[in-house]
TrEMBL record:
This is Glycine N-methyltransferase. The keyword ATP-binding does not apply. Belongs to the class I-like SAM-binding methyltransferase superfamily. Glycine N-methyltransferase family. It comes from Parnassius mnemosyne (clouded apollo). It comes from the Eukaryota. It is an enzyme of class 2 (transferase). One of its GO terms (cellular component) is cytosol. Keywords: Cytoplasm, Folate-binding, Methyltransferase, Phosphoprotein, S-adenosyl-L-methionine, Transferase. Its EC number is 2.1.1.20. InterPro entries: Gly/Sar_N_MeTrfase, Methyltransf_25, SAM-dependent_MTases_sf. Homotetramer. It catalyses: glycine + S-adenosyl-L-methionine = sarcosine + S-adenosyl-L-homocysteine + H(+).
């Protein structure tokens, strides 16, 4: 790695060697669940968008490949979907497992499967705990995919992971995948404070840094600062850094199409609305339908 790429892409406490888990020190994981609230605090727009499309396409079995603390998965379990949730971070999964335990008296949660898996080895990982399984839908939401940085400067790992998502889908199945509007973030150097996914009751300060290498934006670092809250829910000020690959809409669109052999139906939404209805969205959400 060249000297100009030495940039602290992790919070203190995250070791530098071989670690792709940006949540490994547990710092962000601890506050994340409180910050984004529970599944009841998901925005109605998001819930209607996701469950509406899943039902329209008769999707029942859903794989959440970036379940984190389990929030989206729980929203789907509550809505009657059969959900399998995976994540690469055991620090995040710990919260999902605890949430399932807390719901143990609710029969809808009996079939909620939570396992550790990485996008890089997804078909093999799923095979190990659910042989032969394929899914009606795969979701990778909440700006999760951008956590995967471009180690080799040719996006080969990202391409492989997108192909893995396509592999675990049934023919006709749907992939929901999103990214922040990095085009706008690079231009403005700022990140929208509000979320389209959750109704956050706590103020958060997000500082945005864009690392440009050879004239090309290679990484966006977001420094989150969440203060202690008066209700005592968050007892101390929390600061953590998460780094993202700044996916540009046009390039990401091509990469996704290629991952599905240029044969999938590809719809793009802006903040859950048709693309032409939102001028400067916070997020782009791509929905791929794998060919039959
Ligand atoms: C921002 S969190 C989002 C979690 C959840 N979808 C939400 O909206 O709250 C992103 C998640 O992606 C997971 N992740 C990052 N890289 C991964 C990989 N290679 N394989 C599986 N999960 C990964 C992280 O561990 C983290 O839990």
């Amino acid at each position: 790695m060249s000297a100009d790429k030495v940039f602290h892409s992790r919070s203190e406490g995250i070791p530098s060697e071989g670690v792709k888990d940006q949540y490994a020190d547990g710092k962000a994981a601890r506050v994340w669940k409180k910050y984004i609230g529970d599944s009841n605090q998901r925005t109605q727009n998001y819930k209607d968008f996701l469950t509406g499309l899943l039902r329209k396409h008769n999707c029942v079995k859903v794989l959440d490949v970036a379940c984190g603390t389990g929030i989206d998965s729980m929203m789907l379990v509550d809505e009657g979907f059969k959900v399998v949730s995976v994540d690469a971070s055991d620090k995040m999964l710990k919260h999902a497992l605890k949430a399932r335990w807390e719901k143990r008296k609710d029969p809808r949660y009996d079939e909620w499967v939570i396992e550790e898996a990485s996008w890089e080895t997804l078909p093999r990982d799923v095979q190990s705990f659910m042989p032969g399984a394929t899914f009606d839908a795969v979701i990778c939401l909440g700006n999760s995919f951008a956590h995967l940085l471009d180690e080799y400067e040719d996006q080969r790992t990202q391409k492989m992971c997108l192909e893995n998502f396509a592999k675990v889908l049934k023919p006709g199945g749907l992939l929901f995948i999103d990214h922040r509007n990095y085009d706008a973030m690079i231009d403005s150097g700022a990140t929208p404070g509000h979320s389209i996914y959750y109704n956050c009751k706590y103020p958060v300060d997000i500082k945005t840094s864009v690392l440009v290498v050879g004239g090309k934006p290679e990484l966006v670092a977001l420094d989150y600062c969440i203060g202690a809250t008066a209700d005592g829910e968050i007892s101390e000020r929390s600061e953590f850094r998460l780094c993202y690959y700044p996916h540009k809409l046009d390039k990401f669109t091509v990469m996704l199409d290629e991952a599905f052999g240029n044969k999938a139906q590809h719809s793009i939404y802006a903040d859950f609305k048709p693309l032409d209805q939102v001028e400067n969205p916070a997020y782009y959400i791509h929905v791929m339908q794998k060919p039959l």
